């Protein structure tokens, strides 16, 4: 039986375990990336491991999230990141050079290599044939220290694309269609591997739009083959020598299959407040729009923005709409200058924002009260725009531009203009001057630490029996944006756990931090897919700081589950999902871990006089990690001492 691409890359990197779906495996990591919002913690953790220089082939630290710099905090983080990168052998991409996933595609990604990044959209690099996964900062720190990365062997889904896209229908519509069919839980435990003539016809940036938003399916990662299109993209980036071919065998086996006829796709749009609330644009056409933003790691390539510029040529943004644009990288922005398209956008009345995450993570450009905002981004979770009452929709650059020009949700084909044609052979300005190489001599680099960079809090570990109060009970599909919101006010506190923890669950229940601290030891109860979304380990670290020692839910999202384990929080699932209904906020639970090695523990609800069995997915190693108070203590105590 032949192999698919996922199996080929995993086999080349396998350190431990059997490549059988749902088994735990450990793999070697070739590249790592961090961004600033998760990076400060990742490097503090790397530093705590006491390893002088990274052991990966390549590690890059990007600054793209916290770029508002209102006050000293973000700037201090940047200075810390730059100095610690120089010291430990890490490349540093300066603020302004671009969004990590876009710059990684352009300048660093290599087909067939493994990459983990402290950002959930790291799978963007799957568009280039890299096996790229999001992970918590601590897992990235461990990979930089040469430790293997542990994951559950995913199922591999073949997504066969055929047929040709119609004018004004683009890569974003393909991934929105996948989300419509499979939902935000549909990719959990799976790698989505794209094949077929429809996949072969897509360019690397188009493929990257699809692999990027595979994160919203909950997928471990998404992958395209590395073929002529990949070689061509790397040649344009003057990196053809790093290209290797990568394809599935003719008789490769897959666990599941999905077929999409691209010719049948119409422009799609995800409605508030979940990326899988997908409908046809034509079904909600006519709705008035206040704001449009083009950008984010999903849709900020030259192809995306050139498409917008061509549609805006000779036209004006509607008087009732504020339109913003975040180019994905300095390279994209310079290219727009060279083609004259930046001027077309300015003439049309588009607001040019920095090459950064910006509005995607609520760093500025928030919509007005109850504002309708169309975004080419990947997430529209409640409150993420920075305005809780706003209605955020996700769509392609084509649909976003049609709305900006007409003031309402509209079909781009109704504008009566020719579909844009982007020159895929165009040369790009190659300029790595904003990427700083590490110092030759680590001793020569001093680490700069501003007052906002506070030491890592320590978890002392959990005893075999403990009582804990239910601090909060939540529903299905709780995202990390619910648990640990971002935005301009909170993101600057990412290096300061005591302060940021005061915002945990702010959008759901602002009394959470005070009640958790008062209770001393707490539990969170939740539904399915708990912790979907971001890789931010603050969604585990900050609750841990507030005394949360267990999370009892119907099911977990992958990265958040790993983060809970990494910070010594016991992840539990109901043996009988109906028990969820019986537990209430403020109940006092007694947890007995004496049978933990059997995969189960006993939970007694003292307030209700009931007992339940809770399951956990932990391996022996992970049980030891949780008991030790988290992976850092465990690795320092057990592994690195060997
Ligand atoms: C996001 O898109 O939510 C972020 C901000 O990029 C996060 C990382 C973070 O919270 O710092 C992610 O996706 O992992
Ligand atoms: Fe940045 Fe948004 Fe991409 Fe996250 S999803 S990395 S915030 S652009």
Overview of the structural elements:
There is one protein chain. This protein has 3 domains: 5-264, Aconitase, domain 3, CATH 3.30.499.10; 268-412, 2-Layer Sandwich (Aconitase, domain 3); 465-639, Aconitase, domain 4 (Alpha-Beta Barrel). 30% of the residues lie in helices and 19% in strands. The mean pLDDT is 96. The relative contact order is 0.12. The strands form 6 sheets. Strands 21-22-23-24-27-26-25 form a 7-stranded mixed beta barrel. It is of the alpha/beta class. The protein is globular and about 70 Å long. The structure holds alpha-methylisocitric acid and iron/sulfur cluster. Alpha-methylisocitric acid binds at residues 37-38, 65, 119-121, 134, 361, 486, 534-536.
Small molecules (ligands, ions, cofactors) in the structure:
alpha-methylisocitric acid, iron/sulfur cluster
Round the mean pLDDT to the nearest integer and report it. Answer: 96
Structural class by helix and strand composition: alpha/beta
Instruction: Name the CATH superfamily assignment of the largest domain.
Output: Aconitase, domain 3
Q: Which parts are unreliable, with pLDDT below 50 for 5 consecutive residues or more?
A: none
